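Section 5.1 Outputs to date
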Amino acid sequence: MNRFQQQRRKMNTQDGFIAALDQSGGSTPKALGLYGLASNAWSGDEEMYALVHKMRTRIVTTPAFNGDRILAAILFENTMDREIEGRPTPDYLWNVKRVVPFLKVDKGLADEKDGVQVMKPMPALAALLDKAKGKGIFGTKMRSVVKQANPGGIDAVLDQQFEFGRQIVAAGLVPIIEPEIDIKCPDKAGAEALLKAGIVRRLDALRPDETVMLKLTPPDQDNLYADCIAHRNCLRVVALSGGYSRDEANKRLVRQKGMIASFSRALVEGLTAQMSDAAFDEAMDASIQSIFEASRT
């Protein structure tokens, strides 16, 4: 069994969750701020990215961060291109920690139109996919946002996501399709019903060999996405934390049978640069265990 097949089997069958470590240019200052580093801690983008890589290295090298409870980690391109303990980050994740590496490929969100934000154009996607595959990346992630229960807007989001998804599949990678519904959406349940119906239609239209994953906001109606979880073309359905606290995100996730976590901010909630290594490792272990348990339903 080759590496891709091993990783696919792990993603499909093992208990666990995905660690989203993919904050990029726009969200990195906020992530560092929550980590206890104010904006005066760096000067320029290079110093900022060096600091965030140091933070991610500290997270990934904790004893608790390994493939027993964590299935995969989503990286930003800058993180993929760096090293952890002298090894390329994707290589370290898989060969040292047995954690499957994914790459965030979108370039951010376009301005809101028809109640949604589609992704900005990705003219260099093909080259990025080639680069990612060469570095041992298994799959990708790309995010859009739904803010209103607008049928036309939701169709636009899903059309774009699945179009890019097919390109990613053709490149030999597994795409995580992420049409996030804003938790402040005034008709969240209505938007979720439209989104679910649109996803199922598009999953049904995929060829048998086209496999995707879905990353979705925990729905108001429990087990709304059961059809997606059971679908032949869907390797896994994962939940984003969406601005909820870790405790609230876990409570919502545990009610969704077969859905697992892919948390970013909620995973590292409460961790700071100022913590001792012992306190940091203990807090990391507690966070990982709570999310792991919420994902085992």
